[in-house]
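Archive entry. Fields below.
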Amino acid sequence: NAGVMQNPRHLVRRRGQEARLRCSPVKGHSHVYWYRQLPEEGLKFMVYLQKENIIDESGMPKERFSAEFPKEGPSILRIQQVVRGDSAAYFCASSPSRVGTGKDVLHFGNGTRLTVT
Amino acid sequence: GDSVTQMEGPVTLSEEAFLTINCTYTATGYPSLFWYVQYPGEGLQLLLKATKADDKGSNKGFEATYRKETTSFHLEKGSVQVSDSAVYFCALRYSGNTGKLIFGQGTTLQVKP
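PREDICTED_STRUCTURE:
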């Protein structure tokens, strides 16, 4: 069984460009979470999605950031007009069901390391 | 607001030494508590968890006990190995929540042969 797959592993963008980060959850998992890890800091929650729905986006910056999890295909985290402060590791996690139901272990991918030059 | 505080690293130990990584939390209600481990270049892996007061989580020789009276969830291992070198994150989550974890800043452990 493949785990959570994220690509690319490393992404370099110039200021003002767009960054697209992809996440394929564990097969059969319908819940996806995105977290951001800034240098020397812990992970910060960004957004929680189910298939075709955003459930909680309380950790997403109000501008330039968006996320989707379509019926078919991977979840995408999109950052428009990137700035240097967006440089970070972005981690995706998935779970088979809503957490709190007893099947609530989050499976993390290896992350995408975004560098904005 | 809710938060998790871990002892600062790096923690450097010799092989077979005893490990303690302190973790305290601030939260209303009764969160679940977790320890995650991150090996170099990888994502986080769940190490252990505890869902209520006085629960002890354990895995791979690591243990942590949910102490409501001291709001702590310290990670311990009796004899560390070089392969335990990694970054360890303490985290909390409310039961019934959306899976939003609040992480500490992480503690780097370096074990020398």
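CURATOR_NOTE: The mean pLDDT of chain B is 92.
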